[in-house]
Q: What sequence folds into this?
């Protein structure tokens, strides 16, 4: 037997080499994931659908453009008739279209807005009073708050950040597979996917967020046709 307690080995160069190798590997994996995501989004564009806002569902503080493609927060109540389909506490608006089968893709220009909410909701969701935006209540939505904080409205919420803040977002619904996926159209990268089982008709749903002074006054704009990436 020999006492090795006084024998030392310089490990820093080895650690440095290993660390750099791991960084290089992670960079390669990230680049490959982005490439695959972009290719997937290109394939999904064949499922593009035309989506139009339904003013009858819009909260009274939301202004809907005449072509039914833009929504912005007006900061003042609109003179509109009351009806059971209209949201009265949460500043949402649904699309006219509802989907109960198949695959569908639509795109929304969010630009430099600091707050917005996008996704799908059951046709039968509660539209009156206060409620939590989450899948259990029939909402599958992605949100941006304060310009940097992205949230998947699970319960409890899933918070995350993105290296690139999207200016255009694609939403993909696969009804039979129970998937609602969000992509950054600028880079073609995947953002988040909800997995669930759908039994009700689903409407695309939008909220442009409240203006903060001069910030977040721009509308959400639904693309009339899917753009190339």
A:
């Amino acid at each position: 037997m020999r006492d090795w307690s006084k024998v030392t080995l310089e490990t820093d160069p080895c650690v440095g080499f290993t660390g750099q190798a791991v960084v290089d590997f992670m960079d390669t994996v990230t680049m490959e994931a982005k490439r695959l995501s972009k290719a997937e989004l290109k394939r999904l564009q064949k499922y593009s659908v035309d989506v139009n806002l339904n003013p009858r569902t819009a909260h009274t503080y939301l202004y809907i453009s005449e072509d039914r493609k833009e929504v912005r927060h007006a900061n003042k109540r609109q003179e509109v008739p009351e009806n059971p389909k209209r949201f009265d506490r949460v500043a949402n608006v649904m699309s006219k279209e509802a989907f109960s089968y198949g695959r569908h893709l639509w795109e929304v220009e969010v630009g430099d807005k600091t707050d917005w909410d996008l996704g799908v909701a059951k046709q039968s969701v509660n539209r009156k009073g206060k409620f939590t935006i989450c899948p259990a209540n029939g909402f599958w939505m992605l949100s941006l708050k304060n310009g940097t904080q992205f949230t998947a409205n699970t319960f409890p919420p899933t918070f995350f950040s993105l290296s690139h803040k999207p200016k255009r977002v694609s939403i993909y619904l696969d009804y039979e597979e129970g998937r609602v996926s969000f992509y950054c159209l600028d880079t073609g990268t995947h953002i988040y996917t909800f997995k669930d089982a759908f039994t009700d008709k689903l409407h695309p749903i939008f909220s442009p967020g409240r203006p903060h002074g001069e910030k977040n006054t721009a509308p959400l704009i639904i693309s009339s046709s899917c753009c190339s990436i």
Remarks:
- Residues 116 and 208 are 5 Å apart (CA to CA).
- The chain has one helix and 13 strands.
- The radius of gyration is 22 Å.
- Residues 12-44 form the longest helix (33 residues).
